[in-house]
Structures are given as structure tokens and as C-alpha cells.
Amino acid sequence: MLQDLGYNDFTNTVDRFLGGARAPMDVSIEVTRRCPLTCLHCYNNLPMGDMGARNHELSLDEHKQLLDELSEAGVVWLLYTGGEIFARKDFMDIYQYAKRKGFLITLFTNGVMIDEKLADELAEWRPLGIEITLYGNTAATYEALTGIPGSYNRCMRGIALLLERGLPLQLKTVPTKINQHEVYAMKRFAEQDLGVKFKYDPMVNPRVDCSQSPLEVRLSPEEVVRLELQDPDRVGAMRITAKKELEKSVSHIESSDSNMYICGGGHNSCAIDPYGNMSICVISHGQQYNWRTEGFRKGWDQFLGGQRERKKTRITKCTRCKLQSLCSMCPANGELENGDPEKPVEFLCHVAHLRAHAFGLQPTEHGECEFCAGGVRHGEILVSAEQLRNMPIEIPEWAPPFETFNILNNQSGSTCGSGCGKHV
User: Fold this and answer.
1) Is 363 found in the same domain as 225?
2) 60 and 92 housed in the same domain
3) How far is CA 131 from each of CA 25, 187, 195, 283, 424, rounded to the nearest angstrom?
4) Most exposed: 89, 273, 277, 327, by fewest CB within 10 Å?
5) What's the pLDDT tens digit per position in 352-380?
6) Of 216, 47, 41, 222, whose CA–CA distance to 134 is shortest?
7) Which of 304, 291, 280 is nearest to 66 (CA)?
8) Residue 167 resides in a domain
């Protein structure tokens, strides 16, 4: 079923059908960066009352025009994200217009603004998928990260309303220093109690306004790997992919003529922010083209086509590295962390090498890397990996269930205290 087909599988399938030709297949659209939550780890949330941001956002008519152009360009899959998508009072008007155009649509939300009326509308205009981010297994942890009292109950009510209507829901989380101890309780709640899929991604980025504040709650490399080692299936899958990667030749990427981008950004996908700026992906803001100037087709063909063809300007330790499947390094992360798309991100390099050694793999030499044999931090990596491999695997005992579905009968938990709208 389409609901079981992820973005990567979908785009890879269509890419093969197109013979590798460059064509826009899926587009991520941030409808707003405003959100009723104030999550400590978030890279782009703005206050609900930010009128400057609100007034600069694409209007409803502009969104309709954009959707017309995306349809004409052959786009198939849309992801609506934020900020919080339901922070826009007209979001369902945008969404319903997109549904009428025939797009396959996934919605990212934190769920706190979903009420009976909105859930009924979503049931009538069924999306391909809805992903809600959880921030904790208990109200105390959840609200320590979101900063908003009552947000936990509102999220739980939103989840219950969607499930009651049989909507295609998945849950996910971002492990941080605040909620890492509850990740596997959230996983069991999703998979065992609710029967829905669950995933997590420990990557926390700096804010798009250059603030480094989210990094204060980012897990250390040791915490990332310790968390992963509690899930043998996750580790096994990562290890198989990395082992295959280590066995491949990398001579073809040592050329100074190599492209900077190797992902799907600008090849079969792109992102559009709340103000109409087109970019390679949602976290890439170094190079942008505003859709309001001359439309999507020119932005895709000329601007993003040019971005996609950007060449590397220098050899770095990433060039010959075979740990890419264990690392999230890309030009967008380089921009966010270092202000330089080609400068390796130390945190990501640390995580990748620690994962490799903890998973029983041996990284191959790839230049002057402080984490490889002979590097100044190689010994530190070996000690940490050994400690992690020898630690007892203690998957946390089942915590008390989410203070859950009696919430449906508790109207005090049904609306947002700010009277607004909602990011993940």
C-alpha cells in the first residue's frame, strides 16, 4: 500500500522509472514557522503572535497558484510541514485544494491543535499519511521540552481523535537530553498500545536564524549510540548497510569534478518555505530562489538545476569516507553548523566513527581524520565504543501508560490555551 511506501522508496522507484532523469517528484512545503509550542530543540519555530512572519507568508491565493504550477511540473507527492501546519487558520483550504489537484499528501504536525472538527475534515479529505511528533512519555517530560503546560493532553487528544477515525497515523520523536529516558516507552506505546509505526531521529540542528540554542539539548555521541544499542533490529539494519558501504570502492568520488550534492535534493525533490523561497531541502538556506519572482518552473530548471550541478571545491576527510550511511553529513548540515557546506561537522563525524566501532566495524583510512587510527581522538573513540559494547542492554521497563484515552471525555484538554494553531 502507498501508506507503507516511504519517501526514499517512492522517489527511488519513480527515479528508476524515469531512467535517472532529473524531474520534480516530491516537494516539501513549510506553510508557516509559527507554532503554539516553544520546543527547546526546534530549528525553526516562531511565536504564534509573530505578525511580521504571518504577513510575509504566502497567501491562500498564492498557495493555489503554486499548487497549479507544481501540478503542471509533474509533482506527485507533497509534504506539508512547519512550524505547525494548523497554526494557519486557512490550512485546510490549502490542503483541500491540493487534494483536488490529485497530489499524494503527507502531513507533519504535533497534534495539539487537532479537535473534533479538524479530525472530521481530515477523515473526509483523507491524507496519504499523518506523522505526529511525541516529546515525552509523560506530561512532565513532554512539557519540559515543549514549554507549554497542557500541551501533552492536547497531543494525546489529537492522537485519539485521528485513530478513532481510522486515519493513517505514525508517531515519532526526537531524542534529547530531556526525553531520552522515555524513547522506548514511547515506542512501546505506539507499536503495542496503538498498533502504529514509530521512529526516532537523534539529529538536532542549529536554528535557521543561526542560533545554536537547540544544541544545548542535543544528545552527546555516546548518548546517541547508547540509545541505539537498546534496539538490536535498528543496529542490525544499520550495520548491514554500513558493512556494504565499507566494501565498496570510493575512487569515483575523489575527483575534484564531483558534485557537492548526492541526495535527491534538486534532482527529484525540493523545499519551499513559508515565504516562497525554494531550496534544495528544508534545512538548506544558504542558496534560495523566491518562487514569487518568476515561478516554480524557472526555479526548478535554472536555479535548483544550477545548485544541483555545484562542484566540490576541495578535498576533505568526507570525500573518501565510507561511513556515510552512519553519518548525516551533507552540504545543508555543513551550512547550519559551520556556515560552510563543505566543512565536515565534527559531531556527525564523531557519531559515525563511534557507531562503526560499537557495531563491530572498522572504518577505512580517509584522510586526516581525528577519529581514525593515528588521529588525536582515536583512542577516545575506542574506549567509548568498548564501554558501550560491554554495557548491559537494559531496555526500560514499561512505564505507566500515557495518561491516555479518557482524555476524549475531558473537554478541558481539547483546545489550545493560546487559541491558535501548531511543528515537528
Assistant:
1) yes
2) yes
3) 20, 14, 14, 19, 9
4) 89
5) 999 999 999 999 989 899 999 999 999 99
6) 41
7) 291
8) yes
